[in-house]
Amino acid sequence: MAKEGDNSFGVASVVLGMLSVLSSIIFPIALILGVTSLIFGLIQRKNHKNNWAIWGIVLSIAGIILSLLVMWWFNSVLSSPDFQAALSQAQQVQQLSDQIPTQ
Q1: Residue 66 in contact with residue 33, Cβ under 8 Å?
Q2: Residue of 2, 42, 3, 38 whose CA lies nearest to 19
Q3: What is the residue range of 33's domain?
Q4: What digits encode the pLDDT tens for the residues 41-50?
Q5: Domain for residue 20, yes or no?
Q6: If we measure between CA atoms, which residue out of 71, 56, 57, 58 comes closest to residue 24?
Q7: pTM of the predicted protein model
């Protein structure tokens, strides 16, 4: 059990929350870090209400939201008609270049 005034979960929550925000471009990792940070922040808040808990919770929520936004953005880009057309055109160019004899 945590001793009186122990900020271990709060510090871990802040560190994991910062890593979640910074790695939001890699959304699976950011989601895992964000959820873990949120759990640690809530544990810290339950044991000792202090700024470590608050900042850990804020950073974890920010990391989760950023990673979800990045995931949504990647999905919208990859499923857009313009991207699909460009991908199809690139595949056609690749097929044509494969047919050119090399010396």
Answers
A1: no
A2: 38
A3: 8-99
A4: 999 999 988 9
A5: yes
A6: 71
A7: 0.77
